[in-house]
Design a protein that fits this description.
Helices cover about 30% and strands about 25% of the residues. The chain is α/β, with parallel strands linked by helices. It has a single domain, classed as Vaccinia Virus protein VP39 (Rossmann fold, 3-Layer(aba) Sandwich), CATH 3.40.50. A seven-stranded mixed sheet has the order 3-2-1-4-5-7-6.
Length: about 220
Amino acid sequence: MKKRFQRTGEKEMAEEKFDFDKKAATWDENPGRVQLGNDVAAAILDEKILTPEMDVLEFGCGTGLLTLRLSPLVRSVTAVDGSQGMLSVITAKIEAQGIKNIHTQLLDPSRGGILRGGYHAVISSMALHHVKETASLVEQFYNVTLPGGHLILADLDPDEGKFHGENPTVFHDGFDRKMLGDILTRAGYSSVRDKTAAVVKRPASDGSVQSFSVFLITCRKEG
Ligand SMILES: C[S@@+](CC[C@H](N)C(=O)[O-])C[C@H]1O[C@@H](n2cnc3c(N)ncnc32)[C@H](O)[C@@H]1O
């Protein structure tokens, strides 16, 4: 975890929320984000976990780049995010496309929000690194995963802070797969597996191309 954010105060938290609200309207203009949503969706589909009877919770749904690809495959998606700006964008898409099975929820566990309900799958992509207390968030995921249900997480492998640079909303410079797997196991999940879901390529300032890999970790709550 980034040491400089260990004592996050109210002011920083306000800035964090403001930042996502501000960025929401133009979020999808970055083709790399759209591509990553597509790649993570494809990696999830390859797992053949999702079925039309499933109720899914997606944490940190953002503008719905992943949500809208998953929603046709399941019964419902509860799309949770801590940014009203992000939820406004996904809501506009839901209304424009007449989608009936996505429900949005404004909730931020870092501000005391508690996930409720029971879901056949809990999914989160590129949101975990924004939450300081990983283990406590994973415990919340476990509590809302139905017995026999699944947790599916996509996020950056360790990147030495190069992916985000100086970004006050980022608490983790990627995750070591084994360490995250241990957190999942301690929370109660089993059958932890990982694979690479995507590789994001970006030009660096020296003209070279930087590659950032994104993992997909899946695990189950015993039935
Ligand atoms: C990098 S974006 C990823 C969005 C989406 N999952 C995607 O892949 O396009 C991270 C999202 O997590 C949300 N987020 C960050 N910290 C959060 C928190 N503490 N509680 C709830 N949502 C949070 C942000 O508002 C943002 O929408």
